[in-house]
From TrEMBL:
A Gene Ontology cellular-component term: cytoplasm
Protein origin, superkingdom: Eukaryota
Domain DJ-1/PfpI: 140-240
Record EC number: 4.2.1.130
Root EC class: lyase
The protein, known as: D-lactate dehydratase
Family matches, as Gene3D superfamilies: 3.40.50.880
GO terms assigned for molecular function: glyoxalase III activity
Length: 246
């Protein structure tokens, strides 16, 4: 059974001081897609008990998987014992996929840059990394041909990653991520350093989105897997399962 690493943000606030934290369905939904097929651990920049977005808890208080996730004793234990990113070793040859999630740039408060990535804790090798923050070696991971997946704001952590020729991994690729319309509708344009839809296009990517805001949309192009928004969290997990043939 492969090992999967979920990395959750330690940032409790955005650049403007608005409440942040890891977004509940973007952890819960892929967790229950992947948990039957893999061993899952958690990590965050500051270690145990990373802050959750209370807004997401309220918004998804009737979502069965989110309710289950918050009450899950195994999940609580894993969150309470989450490793610090400083304890993570980037050299993990058996890694097969990494998946990034919501608002990685909030991690700037802890000194980490977009385009960074690490993938193994104290020598334990993971087949999938589900990430909410940027960490070391995105480029190395992508260039090795492993699935590099991101959902919602997660693709922001890949904007500095390059292929073997030094080009952005988005260049010439079909991809998605949180749309300008969605960012505008929730009035968070001021809270982010760039609009992801625009950034993907500026890097040479072919940005795609669902016909309607908030509808699920997943794009797979080679080993780059992207999901548009929270509704895409379970579908990106399912795409990873298919890609890994689990």
């Amino acid at each position: 059974m492969p090992a999967i690493l979920f990395v959750l943000t330690s940032a409790a606030k955005t650049f403007t001081g608005a409440p942040a934290g890891w977004y509940l369905p973007e952890a819960a939904h892929p967790y229950y897609v992947l948990a039957p097929h893999a061993t899952i651990d958690f990590a965050s920049p500051a270690g145990p008990n990373p802050p959750i977005s209370e807004g997401s808890v309220k918004m998804f208080e009737s979502d069965p998987e989110c309710v289950k996730f918050l009450a899950d004793e195994t999940v609580k234990s894993k969150l309470a014992s989450a490793k610090k990113l400083s304890e993570v070793n980037a050299k993990a040859e058996r890694l097969r996929c990494c998946l990034l999630r919501r608002r990685p740039w909030a991690r700037h408060r802890f000194g980490c840059r977009p385009g960074q990535h690490q993938t193994c804790i104290r020598g334990k090798k993971y087949s999938v990394s589900i990430l909410n923050v940027p960490f070391d070696d995105h480029a190395q991971f992508y260039q090795a041909g492993k699935i590099t997946a991101a959902v919602c704001h997660g693709p922001a952590a890949l904007v500095g990653a390059t292929d073997a020729e030094g080009k952005s991994i988005f260049a010439g690729k079909n991809a998605t991520g949180f749309s300008n319309a969605e960012e505008t509708q929730i009035d968070t344009v001021k809270d982010v350093p760039f609009l992801l839809e625009d950034k993907i296009g500026s890097l040479g990517g072919k940005y795609e989105k669902a016909a309607d805001p908030w509808a699920p949309h997943v794009v797979v192009d080679g080993n780059l897997y992207t999901g548009q928004n929270p509704a895409s969290s379970a579908p990106i997990g399912e795409a990873v399962l298919k890609g890994l043939k689990l």
